[in-house]
Design a protein that fits this description.
CATH class: Mainly Beta
Strand order of the largest sheet: 1-3-4-6-5
Number of helices: 1
Structural class: mainly beta
CATH architecture: Beta Barrel
Number of strands: 6
Largest sheet: 5 strands, mixed, barrel
Number of domains: 1
Order of helices and strands: EEEEHEE
Helix content: under 10%
Distance between the termini: 28 Å
Strand content: over 45%
CATH superfamily: Nucleic acid-binding proteins
Length: 137
Amino acid sequence: MASVNRIIIIGNLGGEPEMRFTPAGQPVTSFNVATNYRYSTAQGERKEETEWFTVVTWRKLAELCNQYLSKGRMVYVEGRLHSHSWDGQDGQKHFRNEIIADRVSFLDRQGAAPLPGAKSGGEEPGGEELGPDDIPF
């Protein structure tokens, strides 16, 4: 049986993207995205929770994200969830979940243009970009 590892988020960048390069020269850009969940308690009190996601992009998509994204921008991110752990210098075990994105699109009005849909594997953009009205939820 096939398995699926796919995650989609829509949120705002919490800071500026950070681009770096692997020893082989491949560009990698990471940035944080905040999503909000609003709900009402049984007592009718309105609550809001913020969840932070670390997004990692590679190759051409990494270059585009570094060039066009900035703090506060609303983005649509699609990719796979990647979890890893390591032992820190303090001897503590650390865990991190990241979204390895293969699609990132602008959703806010700044420029109102989607980020070209480069794939993480380095292929050229293809297919149609989603706009805010195309999201099914």
